[in-house]
Amino acid sequence: MTTSQQRIRPRRLRQSPGMRRLVAETRLNAADLVQPLFVSESLSSPRAVPSMPGVLQHSLESLPAAARKARDAGVGAVMLFGIPAVKDAAGAGATDPDGILTRGVRGLAAAVPDMPIIADLCLDEFTDHGHCGVLAADGTVDNEATLQRYRQMATLLGEAGATLLGTSGMMDGQVGAVRDALDGAGLHTTGILAYAAKYASAFYRPFRDAVESSLVGDRRSYQQDPANAIEALREVRLDLAEGADIVMVKPALGYLDIVAAAAAEADVPVAAYVVSGESAMVEAAAAAGWLDRRAAIMEALTCVRRAGAGIVCTYWATEVAQWLARGDD
Ligand code: PBG
Predict the structure, then answer these.
(1) Which of 57, 32, 46, 188 is nearest to 116 (CA)?
(2) Closest C-alpha residue for ligand 1 atom 2
(3) Which residue from 116, 182, 242, 283 has the fewest beta carbons nearer than 10 Å?
(4) Is residue 1 domain-resident?
(5) What's the mean pLDDT when you consider all of the chain?
(6) Which of these, 267, 230, 275, 281, lies nearest to 250 by C-alpha position?
(7) Residue 278: CB within 6 Å of ligand 1?
(8) Whose CA is nearest to atom 6 of ligand 1?
(9) Which residues are within 8 A (CB) of 199 and not within 5 positions of it... i.e. 6 or more apart?
(10) Domain count, the chain
């Protein structure tokens, strides 16, 4: 059969923007995007994070406007990370009722009461050693002692008005401990967004600038090995059994196989987090003129959705939502 005699022509469905739009299997919606935000106790006005172009450390004063901007663009939720003025071994700032994260959550709950507010539930921003938990005498991260700290954080952040708690510390049993603490405090409607499969990734580096992390070493004794997929499913199943409301895979772009596997496994919504270093690669290449920034962002986020994530955390959330609202993508 010569080319002109072909009856089956896949290109028919690609011939025009309208036809491509009709048959698109995956669409980005602003409602599916989560905007991470940073609030710093030390600032009185916003400050740029050089390794995260476009991302700001907010002050308590500037934070509400950033959340309102995300809401007005149609973004689905905001996720808050706090940067305390003082860090110590136990991460005391994390459980201070007047600590930066608690105050930030209260500010968001007042500013965007109709929007889900995800509070990061981890100690790494608050500890002087930079680990996600407290340390035992031998210097290892003490799982059980850390769970006690997470339980305290859970009730505090739930009472402050967080809709969902983002358990990002990768301690064993953290979802169960947080669920138990919330229920014990009568916070039955506060949900858990479980960082179920969180890998020990080199692509978190710019984030550590954003939270002024003092980590020396790495997190490989609690975050997952990038070489492994099977244990990701084990983590997902455990978090579901412990009561996770949403499970997340992180990072996203290099881990789309894990996103797809988690989506096949889970009977709750699956989220994926396009992390700081993944964004930085696109930003740096675009700044050099090597990539079309907007096309690369839209493609990257569409691919994460196509792999099976219903929810995508991305530093580009508000900007992409504004593009989508204008209807030009
Ligand atoms: C830990 C946390 C990290 C990120 C989100 N939560 C850093 C880490 O685990 O080292 C990274 C996010 C990003 O890189 O965008 N609370």
Answers:
(1) 32
(2) 168
(3) 116
(4) no
(5) 97
(6) 275
(7) no
(8) 168
(9) 223, 224, 225, 226, 250, 251, 255
(10) 1
**207 ligand 1 Cβ < 6 A:** yes
| Residue 116 included in any domain | yes
Active site (catalytic) residues: 198, 250
Ligand 1 lined by 313 (C-beta under 6 Å): no
Q: What is the token pair recorded at 122? A: 């981890």
Q: Does the CB atom of residue 120 touch ligand 1 within 6 A?
A: yes
Give the number of the atom of ligand 1 that is nearest the alpha carbon of residue 205. Answer: 14
SS3 24: coil
Return d(Cα 54, Cα 65) in angstroms, integer.
15
Judge whether residue 73 has pLDDT over 80. yes
pLDDT band at 239, cuts 50/70/90?
A: very high
As a whole number of angstroms, the distance between CA 329 and CA 327 comes to 6
CATH code at position 92: 3.20.20.70
Q: Using CA positions, which residue lies closest to atom 10 of ligand 1?
A: 204
Instruction: Give the pLDDT mean for 251-260.
Output: 98
Q: Is 68 helix (H, G, I), strand (E, B) or coil?
A: helix
Residue 95 sits in which domain range? Answer: 27-326
Structural domain includes residue 221: yes
323 CB near ligand 1 (under 6 Å): no
Nearest CA to ligand 1 atom 9: 204
* Ligand 1 neighbourhood includes 204 CB (under 6 angstroms): yes
Among positive and negative, which fits the CA dihedral 104, 105, 109, 114?
A: positive
Q: Is residue 12 part of a domain?
A: no
User: 208 CA distance to ligand 1 centroid (A)?
Assistant: 7
pLDDT digits (tens, 9 = 90+) for 176-234: 999 999 999 999 999 999 999 999 999 999 999 999 998 989 999 999 999 999 999 99
